[in-house]
Amino acid sequence: MTTAAATTSTAPPGDVAARAGARFRQRYAAEPAGRWAAPGRVNLIGEHTDYNDGFVLPFALPLRTVVAAAPRDDERWTVCSELSDDPVEFGPADADEPGRVTGWAAYVAGVVWALRAAGHAVAGARLSVASDVPVGSGLSSSAAIEAAVLTALVDLSGLDLPADRWPRLAQRAENGYVGAPTGIMDQSAVIRARPGHALFLDCRTEQVEHIPFDLSAAGLAMLVIDSRAPHRHIDGEYASRRRSCERAASQLGIPALRDVPADGLDAALARLDDDETRRRVRHVVTENQRVLDSVALLRAGRVRDVGPLLTASHASMRDDFEITVAEIDTAVEAALAAGAYGARMTGGGFGGCVLALVEASAADTVAAAVAAAYAERRFTAPGTRTVLPAGGAHRVD
Length: 397
Ligand code: GLA
Hints:
The chain has 397 residues and is of the alpha+beta class. The protein has helices at 16-28, 92-95, 105-117, 141-156, 166-178, 185-192, 234-252, 265-270, 275-299, 307-319, 326-337, 363-376, and strands at 34-43, 55-56, 58-71, 77-81, 84-90, 125-131, 197-202, 208-212, 220-226, 342-346, 353-359, 383-387, 394-395.
């Protein structure tokens, strides 16, 4: 990872894998059997399309969550993390009943729950979690912990479970145990991504294609701008967008909005009776097409030309899906005015991060322009970093 002018980090100092190991030794007075890592993610394009059975194009970040772990003799799980001083311990009864373990440890219990519910014998374990993925910035810190824990427990339990089934299990942990009705994108990205590539995922079939996304070779950089906007009602708003889409699909008599082709959009809109639902549908249908167009451009090596699609995606989220906030729109406008090829909010919305595709030599100028626009509007200063696509979940050692 290189850094731009306004780069900031909230992670504790030191290598994240070393921190996970050190905490394990300190807490349990023993050596971990191994360390397992999973990254955060950003989504290049394809927002709120995953739960509509559509297309997404995320990539993994060079920011990781690492779990150091060792098996124990009984069927219990103890987990400590940088997020709290007190370790959390739970047994099968807690794991089997969603809601019994709460807070950050619910992601760990959720993974145990999802594995057990799928009929797998999960080894009891001691775990220690450390992370460089900021919490609450929309970079999928939750998918990162789910994937790192899942990777560790699959290994420690000796399960014969192919990696292409892991995203569904991690998603089930989040939906069924933690209680967040998210789609399959984040868990797929953090598990299946490859370095130097974006992950083109068909969320209906779960087929993936790794699309070369070599920013450095093209002389480009991707800025990730943390808007620092306080999350406003994100859970309720997310669930309500999802319900609107599902209602619209049922009104149209189709399994999911994925089944409205771009050239069938006008006919579908004409069959819906309220303007808000029409705008929600228009976002999803046009966004699916923008993912397909972006993939075609990347395959042709035309990385810069993806820029206008990113900006169009942002306008669609702002005007039709109505999930952006003032800080986010300010960052996008300032980045574009400073010469970005394209910019958009990434993730679920109502805060989180903005992506800006820029000439590598312009990264500092664009970051400074966004910071200046923020200062003018008296927003909390944004955090900015440049990133290159990284790889998915793996065993560290
Ligand atoms: C969140 C969810 C994903 C996806 C995005 C919006 O990140 O976890 O499943 O729906 O929002 O694209």
